[in-house]
Amino acid sequence: MLHRLTGSMRCLPDFLVIGAQKSGTTSLADYLGRNPGVWFAPCKECNHFSGPQRPANAYRGFFPTRRRRRIMEERHGGPILLGEGTPYDLFHPRAAEAAFGLLPDARLLILLRNPIDRAHSHYRHCVRLGLETLSFEEALAAEGTRLEGEEERLRRDPRAVSDYHRHYSYVARGLYARQLERWLKWYPREQVQVTISEALFGNPEPALARIEEFLRLAPGDAGGLRQLNRGTVEEPFPDRIREGLRSVYREENRRLAEMLEVRLPWDDEGEHT
């Protein structure tokens, strides 16, 4: 409460890690947090833009006062960038507009993972939390019914929340092109950097260097980087389910590759994790 009362004295973030969920955003925040020029909000996920509408001062409460920032910069001997990461933001239908309304100059970091593997990791996460009792195949079949009307309700009502939209969007969250388009409707392309998760974790040092360059950060110590929150390896799901998901994502992946002007590593469908 005290932080909210002092909101007018506090800073706003310079950059956001907006998703995608189960694509390595926790690891990215950890990597960037090692750079002495970065300060991350202490909350794991602030959920300001993808939660029920709250006053701007409530969001400012997550960040240091302007005086505190000056002290940090004096000790550091240079600028300090403030950031926070809420992976639900990329997927939420109102988050892009809400973020731009408060942070039009922010830089956006997006991690995108093979959407098939992301969907299965998301499912396993919900099972571990006790949120999902269906099999993976059953959950995929139920997704359309579970999500029916939820996105429109969230878009229409700034106070609305949806556990179904947040938790059971296994396939929908992997439709990356349409989510990226929603954010690019508000933010210019030069303020958005998309990193492929497989590239980051396959060779983290150069991928992190590109992110730091995008943020205009002096390079930090990239030694000993490892992926966090990596789920335990489980038996792969049936090939027929993977083939069905590959068909669902084929056109969306094609559009995404065109938007990013890259070849997506999961087009080759190599090793699965």
What's the layout of helices and strands?
Blueprint: H1 2-5, E1 15-19, H2 25-33, E2 38-40, H3 56-60, H4 66-76, E3 81-85, H5 88-91, H6 95-102, E4 107-112, H7 115-128, H8 136-147, H9 150-156, H10 163-167, H11 176-184, E5 192-196, H12 197-202, H13 204-214, H14 239-260
Helix pairs in contact: 11-14
Number of helices: 14
Beta-strand residue fraction: 5-15%
Q: Give, in order, the helices and strands.
A: HEHEHHEHHEHHHHHEHHH
Q: What is Rg?
A: 19 Å
Average pLDDT rating: 91
Within the largest sheet, what's the order of strands? 2-3-1-4-5
Shape by Cα distribution: globular
How many beta-strand runs?
5
**CATH level-two architecture:** 3-Layer(aba) Sandwich
Number of domains: 1
Structural class: alpha/beta
DSSP helix fraction: 40-55%
Distance between the termini: 42 Å
- Residue ranges: pLDDT <50 for 5 or more in a row? none
Kindly provide the name of the CATH class.
Alpha Beta
Determine the CATH topology. Rossmann fold
CATH superfamily name?
Answer: P-loop containing nucleotide triphosphate hydrolases
